[in-house]
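User: Show me a protein chain along with its predicted structure.
Assistant: Here is one chain, sequence first, then structure tokens.
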Amino acid sequence: MAYQAVEEIQVRCEKENIPFWKAVQLEDCEENGITEEESWQQMTLMWTRMKESVDAYDPSEKSRSGLVGKEGGLMDGYLQNEKPLCGDFVSKVIANALKMGCNNACMKRIVAAPTAGACGVMPAVLVTYCREFLIEEDRMIEAMYVAAGIGQVIASRASLAGASGGCQAEIGSASGMAAAAICGARGGSKEQMGHACAMALKNLMGLVCDPVAGLVEVPCVKRNVGGAVNALEAADMALAGIISQIPVDQVIDAMGEVGIKMDVSLRETSLGGVAVSPRGVEIAEKLGM
């Protein structure tokens, strides 16, 4: 049976003296009746596709609506010609998050991690980190397992869909997954991975889903940036020894409760938030939505 709690993964790690990622891999094998080698090959393919998706970005392409497409290129240009406030690495994370969101809007192949609308968070964090610091591919695939395990628990205890839990279920979940993954890639303990995830989720709890004109473009593409940067700061806090006073599984439960209480107008219906702002309505009318 799939893990129902992050604590279950941590307990297995302790009991069998294995790392967090291995506990997730073993569960994947048991759940799907595959070998460890087959599981690794599947995750390697996901990692490869994620890297390819980042490289597939073309700043000259726009989404069919014309609302997004060039943002990643603009961030690249800013990084090359100015001194960004966030510094070189974080600015590249921002650029890659934008690129992936634009790729999704332009109907290119992306890795839903955990959803298409949140596809920019994990690649922005993990691919950028791998390339900037020349990290071994195997370590990044292990990080992918960590993210998968976290995502599985969130799906079980709360939700990964904006329609049922708001954008906290999409960008928020992606940020929690990425925070735990990058924490693990940096050598964090299983406890620190849990704290990183918990802090990332708490920071985005209550985030509404209010796509303008019903399209996964505005404000979705830029929210991927917020999720990616949030993951980095949550991981850094955890690695510094800062803990989440609320255990990660309890944070996930709270996130699920908030999603249930969220008004339907704020859950991907485009009936609230910026979707009904004067400009949002104008865009929708212009597009005939």
